[in-house]
Amino acid sequence: MTSTLPDRRNHAFDPDARLAEEILRGQLPHGEWRYVAPRPMWAALRVSLRSAPDPQSSQVTEALPGEPVELLWENAGGWGHVRTLHDRYLGWARLDELVHQPPQGEGLTITALRAHAFAGPKVSQPVLAELAYGAQVFSTGAEVVEENHRRWQPVELPDGRPAWVQEVTLSPLAATDPVTFALRFLDTPYVWGGRSAWGLDCSGLTQTVYAACGRELPRDADQQHKALHPVETPVPGDLAFFPGHVGLMLDARRMIHANATHMAVTIETLGVGDYGSRLQASCTRFGRWPE
């Protein structure tokens, strides 16, 4: 048994209910614990994971449509304690927003920052779902339909509903770098706990941008701080860290970040203007992806 409890953002245990995931056996304080094994689930839509099983509690992260999650346990109110698999982050989600099994067709990844799934192959058809970069839809095997020089792909949504997306939203993502990809999110709304172009927070932006470049970062700013090598002088693509905040450096002084000051993704120059000066004064370090 360790003297320090595991990080509850990534390790599932409830001291009040004496409930914990099986992997923590032997790592928790002595006493009667009931250990459970996680069950696979998938996000049916863009699912908000919250700090507590209460719609008024704060959002801690999101699961994108079609992303796999693990269900640890559930309560009588229709909430489940779940973990996103890509970064092993925990939160509470509504069980009716999850599915036990996604469609069996080939998974297709949305590469547009934002997209919609429609009820039919026409932009005037009802919108069935909001999609975002990284979300998954599933091929039906049916042929693409052309309409007014647009190509429509028939798909199934993660919850099994038939839908149509424009083929352009599935176009392969060209090789990119963190700076180029981050700039695509400029002016995206700031949303606490968000991790899509419909709204994201500071670490959601840096995590998403690095993932597009094949670099897997943990969810929160302090976790990302620990994952990167400290450097004195930043180069494009390095991260800049502040108390409870993170941004991505465009060059030695300019930084792009999702922030609650402007409620959007903006660019600041460290040391310039009131906000830039405050940021420079509070910067704790720069971090670089280990080569």
UniProtKB/TrEMBL annotation:
One of its GO terms (molecular function) is cysteine-type peptidase activity. SUPFAM superfamilies: Cysteine proteinases (SSF54001). It holds the Pfam family SH3_16. The keyword Protease applies. InterPro entries: NLP_P60_dom, Papain-like_cys_pep_sf, Peptidase_C40, SH3_16. Gene3D superfamilies: endopeptidase domain like (from Nostoc punctiforme), SH3 Domains. Keywords: Hydrolase, Protease, Thiol protease. Residues 172-287 form the NlpC/P60 domain. GO terms for biological process: proteolysis. Belongs to the peptidase C40 family. This is NlpC/P60 domain-containing protein. The lineage of its organism: Bacteria, Thermotogati, Deinococcota, Deinococci, Deinococcales.
